[in-house]
Amino acid sequence: MILRAQKVVTMSGPVIEDGAVTVEADRIVEVGPASAVLAHAHDELLDLGDAVLMPGLINAHCHLDYSMMRHAIAPPRSFTAWVKRINALKRSLDSGDYLAAIGRGFAELRRWGTTAVCNIEAFPELMMKLGPSPIRTWWFYEMIDIRHRITSDEVVTGALSFFERRANSLDNFGLSPHAPYTASIKLYHLANACANTFAMPLTTHVAESKEEFAMFRDQRGPLFEFMASLHRPMHDCGGDTPFGCLWKSGAINGGWLLAHMNELVEEDFELLASLPRGSGPSIVHCPGSHHYFGHAPFPYRRLHELGLNICVGTDSLASTESLSLFAELRQLSAAEPWLTGEQLLRTVTTNPARALGRRGVLGKIQPGALADLIALPVSGTIDRIHEDLVQSDAPASWMMIDGKILS
User: Fold this and answer.
1) Entry pTM
2) What range defines the domain where residue 97 resides?
3) Using alpha carbons only, what angle is made at residue 16 by residues 15 and 18, rounded to the nearest 5 degrees?
4) How many angstroms from the chain centroid is the CA of residue 85?
5) Smaller CB count within 10 Å for the chain: N or C?
6) Residue 121 in 3-state DSSP?
7) Are 186 and 250 in contact (CB under 8 A)?
8) What is the rounded (10 degree) CA torsion for 149, 154, 156, 158?
9) Backbone angles phi, psi at 133, to 5 degrees
């Protein structure tokens, strides 16, 4: 099949005006001006008209389980208060609620052009009841060991079947020790060992809030008191930062996706600066959630200047307005106006592809890449098209995943 569009934003080279892309099976085999691609081809032609064809977006951090919680929790007075509130809400819901939420979340992701998502899955038992994922999905098994979870046959069976090979090629798997305040260093090392054996990606929340920082550095604050009340061992608190605690212990390394990284101090930046350029972890910033919690300004420029791979995610609808990555990019652009439209788009295409070990396979339109593509009803001059894409709030008008057109 040949796809033709007024503009093709490849994310691997210049924008192509009146461009065409040839797809065979699940792969892109040719990209170029329509005049050149059509001159020697006899494949079926799909003309997308006055639209921009670009790689599908990759959401590097999401919690689809909570897609029923939009506006359910007012902006909290503290991060710990939010944790307590969402835990209370979770106890009031059953598997049917979560399955409906995941379906609703998938639909919203697709509406706004997301073709791949890193989803943190807190309830492994749901996997037995889920059909094939409608978009390319990394299911990250959330791991917590601060206290024993009450198990059932359903939970145990779900946990054992979580990583079973599924018929759908869009399903992938990873591990996610939740955060340094809920997962032990031992659990992080176990995750590393599993990932090394089974070649799975790893992600975690770290340095998300002032309260997490106070817990580890100063042995104080609401989160410290809350965790102590749950009988979490607190011997790792007092002296180091959350990021420093994980990195220096070998719990995390350059292969991890680190969600948030909001609360960093000079010694954290010095630690990151000491790493060989390009060997540091990938960072996932969630602008909407960041604004909701009222965190201090995210250190984007500092991390960027250190050469770190920065991605963007939505987090969950329990702490953001929408699962639209374009909405997240607009918030990021407002906070960091020095970023170009192309740099912003990289945070939801090429950068998360690199973080997932899919560089050149996802996030770009080039020969050999997977045919995960979207079309957007955006017009404008070729020199401003990246900026116009970021500022557009129109849903995707067309989508292809794995070489198949989605209805």
Assistant:
1) 0.96
2) 57-355
3) 140
4) 24
5) C
6) strand
7) no
8) -110
9) -70, 140
